Amino acid sequence: MKTYFKHGAKLFLTLLFVSCAGITLAQTTIPTPTTPMVPNKPEALPPDTAKKLGKDTTLIKKDTVPVKKIATGPKVGIAGLNHDHIHLILNEYRNGNVNIVGIAEPDKKLWAKYGKMYGVPDSLFFEDLKTMCLARKPVIVLGYNAVGKHIDVVETCAPLHISVMVEKPLAATLEQARRMEFLALKYYINLLTNYETTWYPSVQDAYNTVRADSVGMIRKMVFHDGHQGPREIGCSEDFLSWLTDPILNGAGALNDFGCYGANMMTWLMQGQRPIAVTAVARHYKPSVYPKVEDDATIIVEYPNATGMIEASWNWPYGIKDMEIFGAKGYIHTFDKDSVEVRVNNSVRSFKAPALPAPTDAPVPYFTAALKNPVKSHNDRSSLRYNMIVMQILDAAKRSIKEGRRIVL
């Protein structure tokens, strides 16, 4: 009996040792996490970006590594990290909603910054865009670099037959935009421009109301797009370094916010080309923005309608609203969701219905666009419409410089 007990105890201890060793071995095979295992100092997001993400202005790191959803879908490359809108796409990456296979950025300081914030492994970073494209073979590259450098992204990607989507506006100058258009057509790539307002349910609802002829023919359009100023709202120094430069951004508030109104106006007018543009620029804060204008008003003339774009870095709060005056009614979009429609003596205020996928956000949109290239003649992101936007902005800059009405 004692011998049996001894053999049983020995067998039990042996099994226990093997089991523990197996657990230890299994633990050592877990891949090294790409995010720290210990709490880090909170890192601040720009307030406007935090608002879009629906988060506090501080990203709080947890003590443990979150389980990351594996992204599927087209292989996406990133060109540049010095645009603060990069937070939006990297947040989608962290949530497993976009398949980023490579990031090209020459500044390694930004590698460290965003690698820590969003759990991006070092293996995804490259100093050179062409090297990244050849190594990782993305099917689309998203430009998050200086507007004046968008042309460099297209010069690299177009010959490799890689589609491109840049942050608004399309380019810093009309000359750059024409070169980009040439390359896109030559190499048959999709070249899209991303505007925040494209994903606003209120704006789409207003457009639908106009197309249904509920307010009659458009007579006047007014667009207010601006905020307190990029420095005032806390944009990063990497972003400000080119956003406030007349070469790298093409202008100041005129390009930064004027493009929104020009884009929506072109869309509402079904791609109709304006007949003339007149603009006035102001420099209210030369000590803050010494190189560029911080306020611009642009009047755009059509044969039967007039558009007014008010773009500013000088307002007491952020605003992106739109007013449409029709022959028999009026539409006002106050923000992303709120709409008011007046027809005769009837006033209707409501929250616009949510947009259906894939037209509700950039990631599902460009995924769909890659499967079915944008051929619509009425797409706000399209190259066709954004070439008209660039013509309006170019004419506005010429009008300011020459002090006269520019006939197109």
Descriptive notes:
By secondary structure, this protein is α/β, with parallel strands linked by helices. It has twelve helices and 17 strands. It has helices spanning 2-28, 47-53, 86-94, 108-118, 129-136, 150-157, 174-186, 201-211, 237-243, 253-268, 362-371, 383-402, and strands at residues 43-44, 58-59, 76-79, 100-104, 125-126, 140-143, 163-167, 191-194, 218-226, 276-282, 295-301, 306-312, 319-326, 329-333, 338-343, 346-351, 406-407. The protein has a nine-stranded mixed β-sheet. The protein starts with a helix and ends with a strand. Residues 1-43 and 56-67 have low confidence and may be disordered.
Chain-wise SSE layout:
Elements: H1 2-28, E1 43-44, H2 47-53, E2 58-59, E3 76-79, H3 86-94, E4 100-104, H4 108-118, E5 125-126, H5 129-136, E6 140-143, H6 150-157, E7 163-167, H7 174-186, E8 191-194, H8 201-211, E9 218-226, H9 237-243, H10 253-268, E10 276-282, E11 295-301, E12 306-312, E13 319-326, E14 329-333, E15 338-343, E16 346-351, H11 362-371, H12 383-402, E17 406-407
Parallel strand pairs: 3-4, 3-6, 4-5, 6-7, 7-8, 9-12
Antiparallel strand pairs: 1-2, 9-13, 10-11, 10-17, 11-12, 13-14, 14-15, 15-16
Helix pairs in contact: 7-12, 10-12
